[in-house]
Amino acid sequence: MSQRQVLQVFEQYQKARTQFVQMVAELATRPQNIETLQNAGVMSLLRPLLLDVVPTIQQTAALALGRLANYNDDLAEAVVKGDILPQLVYSLAEQNRFYKKAAAFVLQAVGKHSPQLAQAIVDCGALDTLVICLEDFDPGVKEAAASALGFIARHNAELSQAVVDAGAVPLLVLCIQEPEIALKRIAASALSDISKHSPELAQTVVDAGAIAHLAQMILNPDSKLKRQILSALSQIAKHSVDLAEMVVEAEIFPVVLTCLKDKDEYVKKNASTLIREIAKHTPELSQLVVNAGGVAAVTDCIGSCKGNIRLPGIMMLGYVAAHSENLAMAVIISKGVPQLSLCLAEEPEDHIKAAAAWALGQIGRHTPEHARAVAVTNTLPVLLSLYLSAESSEDLQIKSKKAIKSILQKCTYLPALEPFLYDAPPNILKHVVGQFSKVLPHDSKARRLFVTSGGLKKVQEIKAEPGSLLQEYINTINNCYPEEIVRYYSPGYSETLLQRVDSYQPLIN
Amino acid sequence: MATLARLQARSTFLAQQYYFRNSVVDIFRKKEYDAAVKIQSWFRGCRVRAYLRHLHRVATVIQKCWRGYLGRQQYQLIVKLAFCSMKMNLYNAMAVRIQKQWRGYRIRKYCFNYFYYKEYLRAVSETNDAIREALEEFAEMKEREDKKADLERKEKKKGYEARKMHYLLSTKQIPGIYNSPFRKDPDPWELRLQKAKPLISQRPKVKKISVSVSNWPAYASPQVLPQPKILPPIDRKPCQGPFRDITEVLEQRYKPLEPTLRVAEPINELQAAREELRKQECMRNIHDDMFLPFSSYNKNKKYIPLMHSSSKYGPDSYGSQHFRDENPTKWLCNKEIKEDKI
Predict the structure, then answer these.
(1) CA distance B115 to chain A (A)
(2) What is the CATH architecture assignment of A256-411?
């Protein structure tokens, strides 16, 4: 055999290897193939190929591994158990940009499944090399590294702290300033993941000067980037008053309201989350949001979308109204109440209803005027039905009960209270009768109306334990009327009249 | 002594007398004694009683004075207290009045200024209206932009389609499908086809590798990997003989072209230099038009026609008129059609 024939064998083998990894990488893009590939023992075959002499084969093998690990955590765990990670980390620092991309992709795919897997990656010392990759010239490499860091930091505070300790934050902030949109997006998402765990982590992100860069990209036309930007800002602002003030000082305010009109639903959601996180801290911040017209914009936004997108907006209205009566009045004149009652009526999901009920309770609990504004939208019967309905969740029942109670205790708008005399359970009836007993002694027209609408009759029918609060209220109401009227409306009065007829001795001359 | 004797003589008498008298007295003695006791007791009793009465009277006077004194003191105290409390009540009432006024004033002025509150609510609603309007405008603007972009995209697509269907354009002889002779006006597509340039040739497109899962990140898509044409040669044993190392040879073989300075220089350097010179001259030239003589100069000059054109047989048509006009704008392709030579 000549030398050429011998070498031909090797060349064939090399071609076959290339073809094999390429096919596996191609097959791994389809989820239906994954199980078959797994059963065929693809992991053990790919692992030696990572150490192949031909760089292309190495890269493609890494890509295939990443794709496989992306699908489920079993495969990801297999990657960790197969001791592939140290190899990847080692070559991440050495090899060319294609290999770096593929290796970072594998790390990302492994780390995204669970904190344990992410911890395994951290234990391999991958963070330092990933941070070095963030300084690479190629935007693709930066993107892959930033994404891997983001997925690692997403799980918990310790992992985030590890990422921060590796010095990733300043480089991620630099990545935001790059011209590539995809890189900006991923870096913003990584910053959001880092800062979401604790105030200290958020503070490190702020110290790296991220807020100014994030804030000036709010008007970017790319909606996916906007989502990440707004989410990062809200994750920073949610921790403390100081951080929220820092975010506000970046002059996000009239600008962020335009995002509430965006076409993309998630941009809307994240924008209202950001406003909510800012408004929830102090009355001053809420006042700032109100002065910027944020409440009106959020109200419009609630009206223009459905489902979970609404939730942060609803909660924002509740937080603003909870701070003080002036702010609650601002919510009312921004037409927030009709919008909230609409949400309460039409949303199918319990948690959104619960949020709307809570927000309404916060608006109505300040003064009679607030309670009246809530009551005229005919919300109270809806709240009552939610409270009484067996289908609503426990949380919704508690929230709606609290809302009803806090509104009723301030409500002096009697037409809205009247239906409650007929169909409210005793624990709520107490407050209703209490309100009547407070209003009736001072209002002659209302007294008259109360008799003619049958309220007095209903009050007489209520069975109250003597000496209880309810009985006291009933007595107060009864004292507002002449005795014969009270007796006339008492149950069993006709019986007593008839008895008197029976016992009456006719006068016969 | 006589007296003594007389007395002694008389003593018996005297003794008798004495005895007699004593005996007489003894009869009444007891009675008298009792009477005397009675009298004395009565008298003494009277005197003691009178004394006691006197004492009582005096004690009463003392007590009266003392008690009166004490009572007056008590009374003074009570009056003082009553006065004090009355005064305090008055003061408190006045203080309440002052505090009431002041507090009301302060609250109305600083905390719950009704007009300020109204003003605030009005300002908030105004801001809200302004913001709503601005946002509405912004949304409208966005929508308009989107619509415009959409329209442009559609227009481009239509233009491309028109280019593709250019062969449906009607000719002078045969009307195309968009130019029905039974209709008054041709179809708008006909006009579009007239304007469009036909699509010349379609190169076979490079078949893209389809990726079913669209959410792969860009850096993990299959296109990013380099697809080498030739696999690098497998490590062979070095050949026998005075040859260089095989990697070195291959490096030499596949290294990129690095031309020498002379080879890198273009061959039409002179032409290029001239062109450059011309360009620079052109750049420095301030005015393109030559200086023309005054306009009235032409008027006085008589126009002398050419001999060739002033012939009475008319101008010669040879060489100035062609029967086959060339209109390069309507050419299908850039190449000139070469006439077949017979």
Answers:
(1) 13
(2) Alpha Horseshoe (1.25)
